[in-house]
């Protein structure tokens, strides 16, 4: 059995559309908000608590209720999935291969994803915020392989960021930059997975 490992954002899902709503909720200028949102996102993906992240982005202390509201809006913004990717996932599952999700994402988002119907084919869901490490760290690939009980050569990994692909390849994993479900399907067919 081969393991096919997917990133989430901009592979399974569309890019978030929630940034204007988040800026409005904070009464913030949208450009300034987006700059702060992305500038601190890696820390959030690496386990920064929700309250600390949203207070940092807002540039002022927030309360737990506001933080939770923002985390919910943020998570919902990332929930629009790509039908073409979900169809590919179903094909991989039907072919008898294992599926894992490996996402740089905060823990709060991970709890939202775990409730989604489309995750049913996945055996493993791994979120960086839970581990306090993130792609492309070598520790992340070691954790992935332990979780899967797999060797690097047994895994194919799709991600939309080249730095993460480079990390996977350095760990001996077949890392492929995500362009489209059609291109991913062609690669999986070429290596005999589909």
From TrEMBL:
UniProt-recorded name of the protein: HAD family hydrolase
SUPFAM superfamilies, sorted: HAD-like
Keyword Hydrolase listed: yes
PANTHER family in the record: ALPHA-D-GLUCOSE 1-PHOSPHATE PHOSPHATASE, FLAVIN MONONUCLEOTIDE HYDROLASE 1, CHLOROPLATIC
Entry's Gene Ontology molecular function annotations: hydrolase activity
Signal peptide: none
Lineage: Bacteria, Bacillati, Actinomycetota, Actinomycetes, Pseudonocardiales
Pfam families for this protein: Hydrolase (PF00702)
Organism: Kibdelosporangium phytohabitans
Entry-linked InterPro entries: HAD-like_sf, HAD-SF_hydro_IA, HAD_sf
Keyword Hydrolase: yes
The entry's keywords: Hydrolase
UniProt-listed NCBIfam families: HAD-SF-IA-v3
Domain of life: Bacteria
Gene3D superfamilies for this protein: HAD superfamily/HAD-like (3.40.50.1000)
């Amino acid at each position: 059995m081969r393991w096919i490992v997917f990133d989430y954002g901009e592979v399974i899902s569309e890019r978030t559309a929630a940034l204007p709503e988040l800026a409005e909720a904070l009464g913030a200028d949208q450009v300034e908000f987006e700059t702060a949102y992305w500038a601190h996102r890696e820390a959030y993906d690496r386990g920064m608590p929700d309250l600390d992240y949203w207070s940092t982005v807002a540039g002022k202390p927030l309360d737990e209720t506001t933080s939770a509201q923002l985390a919910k809006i943020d998570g919902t913004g990332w929930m629009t999935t790509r039908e073409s990717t979900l169809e590919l996932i179903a094909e991989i599952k039907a072919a008898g291969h294992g599926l894992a999700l490996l996402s740089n994402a905060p823990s709060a988002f991970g709890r939202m994803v775990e409730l989604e119907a489309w995750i049913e084919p996945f055996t493993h869901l791994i979120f960086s915020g839970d581990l306090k490490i993130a792609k492309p760290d070598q520790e992340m690939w070691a954790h992935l392989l332990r979780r899967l009980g797999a060797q690097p050569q047994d895994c194919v990994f799709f991600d939309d960021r080249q730095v993460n692909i480079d990390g996977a390849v350095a760990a001996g994993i077949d890392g492929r930059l995500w362009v489209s479900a059609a291109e991913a399907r062609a690669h999986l067919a070429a290596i005999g997975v589909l």
